[in-house]
Design goal:
Order of helices and strands: EEHEEEHHEHHEHHEHEHHEHEH
Number of helices: 12
Number of strands: 11
Strand content: 15-25%
Structural class: alpha/beta
Organism: Streptomyces fildesensis
Protein name: Bifunctional diguanylate cyclase/phosphodiesterase
Oligomer: single chain
Helix content: 40-55%
Bound molecules: ligand C2E, magnesium ion
């Protein structure tokens, strides 16, 4: 925290200087309690291939605050990250997601789940082993878990991050690079990272049909990723036109409201059951399409 000496030379805590306003400190305490009480839950958003095959589901954290209502994940995740609460949040999310995968597998729904992890997690030395132990405890095969990381893992200690990721892939866990295009990592780094999937950030996808430069960025990203042997997922696909452009650019899978928003577990189960055999079909698809 930021300390400031008052006139008597005594250090006084200036809460607002480091962003920890009383309001924010209150929210942090609430989050800590919510992780124990079950007010934090996971919703699941499908990733689907262009042939309709369901590639997996991404677990997205949701917090329903008793007074404030739904709190924006970006907001409380940033808070957890700077306050040291991230390990607990990640533990909670992994535990909940793996429990869900195990339940789905018992129902005959064998679908991989992706969990978002923060740079903090990837820099913690015991992380890969802890994930492997957790998988074993739930009886979930490592291939049913995917971890999504952002390029920000490369900012602090790229070597440590690469080691942890190598540990995870060594156990059979798949790694995915989220929000691609928004960070600062070079292509050299991308080549060194043991990821098998790259997710194009929504900001590029959203402008794809309107802006030629964004279309070119997406085209280059797809080509680059494919030349490195990676699958490409586009996030935030909201309309048919974007879906078609992405398919024509050679993208492998999409995620977005066009397919489905993130759903609570029961709704996700029903969604999977309804689409299990034939996969997902675009409601407005023209008849000439298969
Ligand atoms: P992300 O991993 O890139 O997740 C995609 C975000 O885009 C999600 O926001 C999702 O609800 C939203 N989204 C999906 N499809 C569409 C669409 O078609 N249109 C629009 N406009 N938005 C769409 P959400 O759930 O608010 O999560 C925001 C970010 O918070 C995530 O970005 C991820 O970085 C982080 N996050 C979420 N859950 C977790 C978690 O359990 N752990 C960690 N460490 N981070 C998480
Ligand atoms: Mg993600
Ligand atoms: Mg993303
Ligand atoms: Mg994002």
């Amino acid at each position: 925290y930021q300390a400031k000496r008052d006139r008597s030379g005594v250090e006084v805590y200036e809460a607002t200087r480091d962003g920890n306003t009383p309001d924010r400190l209150g929210l942090l305490g609430d989050l800590r309690r919510a992780l124990d009480s079950g007010d934090v839950e996971l919703h699941y958003q499908p990733k689907v291939c262009f042939d309709g095959k369901i590639a997996g589901l991404e677990a997205l954290v949701r917090w329903e605050h008793p007074q404030r209502g739904r709190v924006n994940p970006e907001e409380f995740i940033a808070m957890a990250e700077t306050s040291g609460l991230m390990p607990q949040l990640t533990e909670y999310v992994l535990e909940t997601a793996l429990g869900q995968v195990a339940r789905w597998r018992k129902m005959g729904l064998d679908v991989p789940v992706a969990v978002n992890v923060s740079p903090r997690d990837v820099h913690s030395p015991g992380f890969a082993g802890a994930v492997a132990a957790r998988l074993a405890r739930h009886g979930v095969p490592p291939g049913s878990l995917q971890l999504e990381i952002t390029e920000h893992v490369l900012l602090e200690d790229p070597q440590r991050a690469a080691d942890t990721m190598a540990g995870l892939t060594g156990h059979g866990v798949k790694m995915s690079l989220d929000d691609f295009g928004t960070g600062y990592s070079s292509l050299v780094h991308l080549r060194k990272l043991p990821v098998s999937e790259l997710k194009i950030d929504r900001s590029f996808v959203a402008r794809l049909v309107l802006d030629n430069e964004d279309a070119e960025i997406v085209r280059c990203t797809v080509d680059l990723a494919h030349s490195l042997g990676l699958l490409v997922v586009a996030e935030g696909v909201e309309d048919d036109e974007t879906w078609e452009r992405l398919r024509d650019l050679g993208c492998d899978a999409v995620q977005g409201w066009l397919v489905a928003a993130a759903m609570p577990p029961d709704e996700a189960t029903a969604w999977l059951r309804a689409r299990g055999e034939h996969g997902w079909r675009r409601p407005n698809a023209l008849e000439r399409e298969p």
